[in-house]
Automatic annotation (TrEMBL), chain A:
UniProt-annotated binding residues for ATP: A58, A59, S60, D64, I90, G168, D173
Full protein name: tRNA(Ile)-lysidine/2-thiocytidine synthase N-terminal domain-containing protein
Keywords for the protein's UniProt record, in alphabetical order: ATP-binding, Cytoplasm, Nucleotide-binding, RNA-binding, Transferase, tRNA processing, tRNA-binding
Residues annotated as signal peptide: none
GO cellular component, one term: mitochondrion
Residues of the tRNA(Ile)-lysidine/2-thiocytidine synthase N-terminal domain: 55-252
Function summary: Plays a central role in 2-thiolation of mcm(5)S(2)U at tRNA wobble positions of tRNA(Lys), tRNA(Glu) and tRNA(Gln). Directly binds tRNAs and probably acts by catalyzing adenylation of tRNAs, an intermediate required for 2-thiolation. It is unclear whether it acts as a sulfurtransferase that transfers sulfur from thiocarboxylated URM1 onto the uridine of tRNAs at wobble position.
GO biological process: tRNA wobble position uridine thiolation
Pfam families, per database record: ATP_bind_3
TrEMBL record, chain B:
GO molecular function: nucleotidyltransferase activity; sulfurtransferase activity; tRNA binding
Compartments, record wording: Cytoplasm
Keyword tRNA processing listed: yes
Gene3D superfamilies hit by this protein: HUPs (3.40.50.620)
Name of the molecule in the record: Cytoplasmic tRNA 2-thiolation protein 2
Pfam families cross-referenced by the UniProt entry: ATP_bind_3, CTU2
Any single GO BP term: protein urmylation
A GO term from the CC aspect: cytosol
Major place of residence: cytoplasm
Taxonomy, superkingdom: Eukaryota
Role this protein plays: Plays a central role in 2-thiolation of mcm(5)S(2)U at tRNA wobble positions of tRNA(Lys), tRNA(Glu) and tRNA(Gln). May act by forming a heterodimer with NCS6/CTU1 that ligates sulfur from thiocarboxylated URM1 onto the uridine of tRNAs at wobble position.
Amino acid sequence: MPSATCVSCQGQRPAALVRPKTSEPYCKVCFFEAFEREIHETIVKEQLFKPGETIAVAASGGKDSTVLAHVLKLLNERHSYGLKLVLLSIDEGITGYRDDSLETVKRNQQQYDLPLIILTYKELYGWSMDEIVKAVGRKNNCTFCGVFRRQALDRGAMKLSVNKIATGHNADDIAETILMNILRGDIARLKRCTSIITGDESDENEGSVIPRCKPLKYAYEKEIVLYAFYKRLDYFSTECLYSPNAYRGNIRTYIKDLERLRPSSIIDIIHSGEQVLVKQTAKMPVQR
Amino acid sequence: MCQINEEDDEAFQALKAAAANKTAISRKCMSCDQDACVVVRIADPMCRKCFEEFFIHKFRSTLSKSNVFGRGERVLIAYSGGPSSTALLHLIADGLSVNARRRLQFQAHVAYIDESSLYPESTDIRDKVTDLITNRLQHPLHIVSIDDNLDKDHDFQQILTERTKSLTAREELVRRRKLKLLFDIAIRENCTKLITGDNCTKLAAQILSDMAQGKGAHVALECNLTDTRNDSVTIVRPFREIMSKEIAMYNRLNSIESLQNADISTMTGPQSSIFQLTETLVNDLQRQFPSTVSTIFRTSDKLEKNLQPHRCDLCCCPLDLSEDQSLVSDEERIKLIQQLFSPTSQNMDSVHVCYACRRLLRDVQPISHSRQK
């Protein structure tokens, strides 16, 4: 019979939930505290930010970016990071999905009182995702969208003159990406995907690109949902219209099953990914 | 077509009968243009003779390409009773025979780890194994029980059923224990190599399953042709590039029978442990994307081995944690490791484990805990 008192405050408050990461009972207050503290520790340990920097928070209106914006604003004030935060949103042109989530971002801008800029694929590239899918069919859509979005984020960041971009990638996302790269044979990405910050001075390949970091790297998706729910954060929770056919779906199901068997699996996969070393002699794709 | 007495080959006859009904199967072998009887890889039809040549060639070239064996070297073959290790024994027997082309030059011993104490219905497995290996193939055979040399406080079956809470942990404990026993036999018999029948399909599932358990640092080692985790005995995997389907076809065409082997995962369902879950994923993906297994394998083959000098006391692989993080402090667990996995020296000052083995130990409860229940 699991105990009904919070393990953190040892019974001062009754437990309200079981923490997905540790399977221990927690009360709401201690859960918020633990969740926020772990993100703060990640930021400090990995030296993600420097005082005086301007950070663009990649905001889609979904749970990850909403929680990211909320927690970064909170920690920036609580621990005096000295950062200036802005919201950066990309409109891929997916009817019934992106147009709704953008309304959420506009509300977030007012709720958090942060500047917001929205860029669209249509104005950047002349194509919206709906047009692309009509032209190529319903397979491999995520590939186009992902490549376009990264460039769009870079362009938006330059427009706003920011020092870094913060994205809401969570532990589940990174675990899926690690496994996907093995299944797809992408050695180059396998090397890079566990880095918490990409594109800064330490990365020889990408000199002139704005660095991107993932403060939520060690946060479980389930915990992000719980946090957003209990804090009554305003976010948009429908999945993209084009995602059911994605290859990633197979791996997402696998990871969900793994998590049920052993909750620490997600962090274990990330540890595995971080330990992986590529042979010097392995052929890597060359960027021209 | 491709052999002298085609009436005797029932496998070929069955396929020919099927071919008479369905025109799709009357394809020609890609090498010699005779009638095909099997399809390898994605869609390459082959006749029996060409398939066997292809199969045997893959096996022999994997071994001879890397000059793995020295002349007269003593090697230990790990036999599990399954289709891969049975095929392995037959191929080695052919390779050692007097009229073989470029004859294999090592001295073969065979080891079998008897797990029957772990299941309620034990069969006469030892007799069957002895019959095959001692009587028919005439290799020196070493059978060791999985609870060999354990004191009364550490009954392996009891540890597995009462103290280990997940099937994942049980499977992993059995796997590590088997390897440890195989190393012991090899050292005792002065064998410097241990040959296993691990095939590409199984290795692909093992690689992903290991990633899921935090063993990413050892993936390069687990899929390599030669595995040097033990200083005295090197593991060799000649089937690492051969698919389980190809082995099944070879066994069928040559009427090679494997033993009906149950293990602790039998009848538990596809979602019962991390390995079962992963194996199901790999097989499902392989059906839709036929290059899945080989891609997983190729990717892992490009990974570098972890060069840490200190080894994990459970799995013998290089450590992937810092000195203090890998130290085991719990006395009961130290005793457990010493009993099940210790090297020849019994008293170890400090016990160190890698990340995955540390996670595994969390699923094994100390004795006092389980007695309270």
